[in-house]
Amino acid sequence: SNHLAARAEELTRRGVTVVPTAVDAAGRIRLDAALHALWERGIKSVLVEGGADVATSFIREGLFDAFRAYIAPRLIGADGAGIGELGVASIDDSEFLEAVEVRSLGKQAVIHGFRSGWLREVQAQSVQTRRVPSRPVHAP
Asked: Is 6 exposed, middle or buried, given 0-12, 13-18 or 19+ CB atoms closer than 10 A?
């Protein structure tokens, strides 16, 4: 759209590198394509920070290696959910985190874990190549 083209032009004028990526039928950026474009530009690690919609999209598509949640001692109800609907029918179908650590950070609790199987994938690639993987674990 003209609005997006104008926004991209403005960002480019400000020194931002705008990388065109594929979009889905609803016009949303395809996350796998965006991550692949970053990988091709030498960006091997991405910190994703956003609301429930962003977190849910990365989780639903399996496009995360590690997950960190900050839990504050505030009760705000469903509208404050950090992750949206994942379509999980039962607890047995849910995503499982491995190597989970829980620690305090001021008044918050921090939970950090890795996507189930990710550590084994990286270790297998490292053993095969004797170095850090040279390609993304998740490629489109």
From this structure: exposed
The pLDDT tens digits of the residues spanning 46-94 come to: 988 877 888 888 988 889 888 887 777 766 665 656 677 777 777 777 7
Strand partners, 68: 112
Cα(7)–Cα(69) distance, integer angstroms = 32
Residues in the chain: 140
From the DSSP assignment, how many helices (H) and strands (E) are in the chain? 4, 3
Give me the sheet containing 97-105, strands edge to edge: 66-71, 108-115, 97-105
The proportion of the chain whose per-residue pLDDT surpasses 90, expressed as a percent, equals 21
DSSP H helical segments within 14-114, as ranges? 31-40, 52-60
